[in-house]
What we know:
Blueprint: H1 11-25, H2 65-75, H3 84-87, H4 92-97, E1 105-108, E2 113-118, H5 121-124, E3 130-143, E4 149-151, E5 156-166, E6 169-174, E7 181-184, H6 185-191, E8 192-200, E9 212-220, H7 230-242, E10 260-262, E11 267-269, E12 272-279, H8 286-301, E13 312-317, E14 320-321, E15 339-342, E16 348-351, H9 367-370, E17 375-380, E18 390-396, E19 399-404, E20 413-418, E21 426-429, E22 435-439, E23 442-446, E24 453-456, E25 469-475, E26 481-488, E27 491-502, E28 505-508, E29 512-514, E30 523-526, E31 531-536, E32 539-544, E33 558-561, E34 566-571, E35 575-580, E36 584-589, E37 596-600, E38 602-605
Parallel strand pairs: 1-7, 12-13, 24-28
Antiparallel strand pairs: 1-3, 2-3, 3-4, 3-5, 5-6, 8-9, 10-12, 11-12, 13-14, 15-16, 15-38, 17-18, 18-19, 19-20, 21-22, 22-23, 23-24, 25-26, 26-27, 27-28, 27-29, 30-31, 31-32, 32-33, 34-35, 35-36, 36-37
Amino acid sequence: xxxxxxxxxxxxxxxxxxxxxxxxxxxxxTAPSGGPPQKALGGxxxxxxxxxxxxxAGPTARWTATQVVxxxxxxxxxxxxxxxxxxxxxxxxxxxxxxxxVGPVAVVGAPTGLVQLPYNPQILGPSGSQVIVRFTGQxxxxxSQTGQYQYSPGQNVQYSFVLAKTAGVWLIEYLPPQQxxxxxxxxxxxVYQPRNLFFFxxxxxxxxxxxxxxxxxYAPLQSANSALNTDVATGLVNGLLNGQGGWLAGATVSAxxxxxxxxRKVTITGKIAQVHLGGAAARxxxxxxxxxxxxxxxxxxxxxxxxxxxxxxxxxxxxxxQDIIVPGNMVTRVTTGSLSFVTSQGSIGQLPAVLxxxxxxxxxxxxxxxxxxxxxxxxxxxGPGRQQELAFAVQQDAGCAVDLRPSGQDAYHTxxxxxxxxxxxxxxxxDNGNLWVAAGQSAWxxxxxxxxxxxxxxxxxxxxxxxxxxxxxxxxxxxxxAAVLVRTPAGNRLLLTAVRIKGxxxxxxxxxxxxxxxxxxxxxxxxxxxxxxxxVTGGIYDVPLTGAGQQPGAAPPLITTAPPGAETLxxxxxxxxxxxxxxxxxASAVSAxxxxxxxxxxxxxxxx
Length: 608
């Protein structure tokens, strides 16, 4: 669903109503804005048209100072399209030096307080016919210049605007010191659209090259050409040329050589996007041109969070149409395969991918291979084109120990990763054959046929604080992105980070928060390349990776209710399987929710 952007016509009346509502609410605490995240609807293959914020003639002598501030904030939503819309609310001297487009965008909730106060010249500047309007609202998020949405709700903050009368009209003379561009949440939702840029996963020996990784961003819709989506497409292409930003920076690579330029705006006709590149792109090899085209087509045709802008691509370099064939979908899917789990006897059982009532689990591990240790969790490698590997954690003192079979051997070897702290909480394989292990405040990487190495978690601060513990790490099939479930004193948090492997070292990069509206997540897994399935008490939710919350009043994004006592979760894109605290497994098809008993056991896991 796309909400049409309201214009500014009749704004004084609207502002008067809002002012009255705010005045009645002043001094009352409000709940954080947003709510449970939901899957952003993709849509048909037809480009969407958007009504744009059209400024009126600006403030008049009839407007109060409070109405001018509200009008300014509302008009700021049009800044990318028409900077003059917001500048007309500023005194002439401030108009010349206000350039907020170079900084981040602050997203705040609806005002919980809006008051007009006498001006105090000892604090804010020279005296005169001036007043202060103080806007109080909750800081919700920051949008970077590269489009990354970082949700970081805080306490109510105050923004003070100093206004002076100019020719009988109140205009803003001083803006809050910390302000670049500030939008209310409702305006942000109206004029920004969730999208994906696509960059390549780094090539590794165990994985064929050519895997695209989605980088969720928000693109501004303010444009006279938004009905044709040309400005949105142009902004996305410029985002590709500028390179990765935010939490994926340094973890993915781009095919665009430094110095590549976009020669003119992207045009879209009949769902065919025409992109004209120049500069360093002219020196690219044929494969380099194919890879650039793959990034462009994936970005412009993506429909996971918003309707696709195009379905085909014509790439020109220095005005010459390139005769190339762009590969098909290069985004990895969640792997299907056998369901593994820990049986009630402490051994491992497996069931085929297509779960049938009454099916008898097989034992992939002999008693000799398992030994006498108590198995606590299990994971199987995705294994496309290669033999699947089995890893399992065992209970050993108060530390973390993993059993893994060295290459070419039948016997399993126990790796004692820690002797104190906490037992292994989760195991997860990626498509490069790496095994990732988490326990307490630590994580380890098992590269193929090499000894385990500790994972540096330093860059995840401040999202992960001392004393927090990692409950689960789940690797995306692209082997770049990791979803991390962390226990904190304030409750469980769901984070995204990107892995970086250099030589014999491994690290997690900066972490961003997703699923902010979910109450205390218990477990999670990759639902597909763009969403996580997250288990909370009573339900399983579909969480997009965009970072933003749902629009006010949206329906709860529930995939399905959860069986009583559900504690663990796995999915393969078609099936959801949970394990309960009573030692039972239940399965539900994604296309037709409804839980069926599968087997006795715990910690179910599809490959990955």
